[in-house]
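Morning!

This is the sequence you dropped in the shared folder:
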Amino acid sequence: MAMANVPALKDEFVKLKTRMDKAVSDFQTHMGGVRTGRANIHMLDNVKVDYYGTEMPLNQIAQVHAADAQMLTVQPFDPSSLPAIEKAVRAGDLGFNPQNDGKIVRIPVPALTEERRKEMVKHLHKILEDHRTAVRNIRRDGNDLIKKAMKDKKVSEDEERRALEEMQKLTDAEIKKMEEMSAAKEKEVMQV
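The structure's back. Tokens below.
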């Protein structure tokens, strides 16, 4: 790591690497919410419920279980929140039709149609592109820092060149990681 070896840039490099890792982690979280043909508790990770006037993540106000491959169950900690949970799941863009039996919300996970699978893959590509852009923006910030350090004579021209190359390598590695995760998820979504 050329940038990590330059004392003037070491702290900044650690911050930039941390920001890129967070972008990849966020991508992984969003990807978990993309539906496949099987019931998965992470499908509901992005569902927010209006709980006494506050938007709360579903998993903070209820227990979510994958009863089997085609059924999710949501058991609220507070039974009075059942209608709000049912409404939030229905409003989420997941194509679910939850049923409330007064104690628990059952969510049948229908098998994906070919058309819906293609929509999911498009959605996955959009998430990937958003996160690629985030990583590139972090690279731009890093390059700006390196150029400023050069201008302020904190680093030599050789150190600047090596640091810029290192920044590009890091960016390429993080994007490749996300593309590989995306390809695996796409394969999973398209599998019948």
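Headline: The chain has six helices and six strands.

More detail when I'm at my desk.
O.
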